[in-house]
Design brief:
This is Peptidase S1 domain-containing protein. This protein has 1 helix and 24 strands. By secondary structure, the chain is mainly β. The protein is about 5% helix and about 45% strand. It has a domain of about 130 residues: Thrombin, subunit H (Beta Barrel). Strand 16 and strand 17 form a beta hairpin. The chain has a 7-stranded antiparallel sheet with strand order 6-5-9-10-11-8-7, with helices on one face. A 6-stranded antiparallel beta barrel has the order 15-16-17-20-19-18. The protein has a 3-stranded antiparallel sheet with strand order 2-1-13, with no helix packed on it.
C-alpha cells in the first residue's frame, strides 16, 4: 500500500518529490517551491497558467522545469499572488518542450512533490530517483500532479513522437486538463518515489495525457536531478528507448498531420503505416 500524507493525517494513495535537500523550509525563505505548485505567467492569478515540475541542476545553477509552450524567456513567474522568478530558458523544437525558471533570491527549491489542490504528498514527498524510459512499460501505474486536475493516477498506454512537443512522448490514462502542462509525473513503488516525466499534452478525447520522459528532459539540458537522501542522477543513452512492447501511435496536434517516429534516435520498434492516430492538445 502506498501512503498519502496530508497535514496531520494519513490516508491510502500515492506520492511525489522536490530539490533543496531539507526536511522543512526555513522561515527566512520568501517562498518554498515544490513540484506541483502553480506557475502563472504574466500576473498574479492571471495570464497563462501551468504547473511547475522537478528542479534540475547544471553548470548554470538549479532551475524548476515546466512545459516550454507555457512561456517565453523573460516572462515573470507568479506562484499565486507574488512573483518568485522568471523564465530563463525555453525549448519547444526540436525534441523537447520544456522551460527553465530562474528563482529569485530567498526562494527555496525543494525536490518534493505535492498536490497543488490539497497539499497532500506521496509518503513524505521526497524524490529518491528516476524511472528510466526503458522501464516505462505498458500498464505501469503512474501518478501526476496538475493545478487543474490535482492528484491523478493512471496506467501507461502507448507512446508516440512529436518533435515540437517533446519528441518521444509516453501517454497514460490519468485525467489531464488544461493548466496541468509542465506538472510532474511520478511513480511510487518498492524503489521509492521516482520522477517519471513532465506533462506536455493531453488527449483530445479526455482519456488521459502525455509526458516527456524525465531522462529525455535531462539529456535536452545536459542536466542532473538531485535526489534524496543525497546525490544526483542523470540520463543514460542505454536507457532512453521505450520498451519494445509499448504500442506506438501517431500523435497529431489538433487537425495537423500526424508525426511518425524518427528513423533513428531514442526509440524502439518500426512503427507501421497502419499505426492508429491519436489527437492531442494543450
Amino acid at each position: 500500500m502506498i501512503m498519502r500524507t496530508a497535514a496531520g493525517f494519513v490516508t491510502a494513495v500515492v506520492a511525489v518529490l522536490c530539490i533543496v535537500l531539507a526536511a522543512m523550509p526555513s522561515a527566512a525563505l520568501s517562498y518554498a517551491y515544490r513540484a506541483g505548485h502553480p506557475m502563472y505567467f504574466g500576473g498574479p492569478r492571471s495570464g497563462v497558467l501551468c504547473t511547475g515540475s522537478y528542479t534540475i541542476t547544471g553548470t548554470s545553477g538549479s532551475f524548476p522545469v515546466t512545459a516550454g509552450h507555457c512561456a517565453t524567456p523573460g516572462t515573470t513567474v507568479f506562484g499565486t499572488d507574488a512573483p518568485w522568478g522568471a523564465v530563463a530558458y525555453a525549448k519547444t523544437y526540436p525534441n523537447t518542450d520544456t522551460a527553465l525558471v530562474r528563482a529569485s533570491g530567498g526562494v527555496g527549491l525543494y525536490q518534493m512533490v505535492v498536490d497543488p489542490r490539497t497539499g497532500a504528498t506521496p509518503g513524505d514527498g521526497r524524490v529518491t530517483g528516476i524511472m528510466r524510459t526503458s522501464a516505462q512499460s505498458r500498464d505501469a501505474l503512474v501518478g501526476k500532479m496538475g493545478v487543474t486536475s490535482g492528484w491523478q493516477e493512471g496506467r501507461i498506454r502507448f507512446w508516440g513522437y512529436h518533435p515540437q512537443y517533446g519528441g518521444v512522448l509516453v501517454c497514460h490514462t490519468a485525467t489531464t486538463l488544461a493548466g496541468d502542462s509542465g506538472g510532474p509525473v511520478w511513480r511510487m513503488d518498492e524503489f521509492g518515489l521516482r520522477a517519471v516525466g513532465i506533462t506536455v499534452l493531453r488527449l483530445a478525447d479526455g482519456s488521459g495525457g502525455c509526458y516527456h520522459p524525465i531522462d529525455h528532459v535531462l539529456k535536452a539540458w545536459g542536466a542532473r536531478l538531485n535526489v534524496f537522501p543525497s546525490g544526483s542522477v542523470t540520463y543514460s543513452e542505454a536507457t532512453l528507448s521505450v520498451p519494445g512492447s509499448l504500442p506506438f501511435v501517431n500523435l497529431t496536434l489538433g487537425g495537423a498531420s500526424a508525426r511518425s517516429a524518427p528513423s533513428s534516435g531514442a526509440t524502439t520498434g518500426t512503427p507501421g503505416q497502419d499505426a492508429p492516430t491519436v489527437v492531442v492538445t494543450y
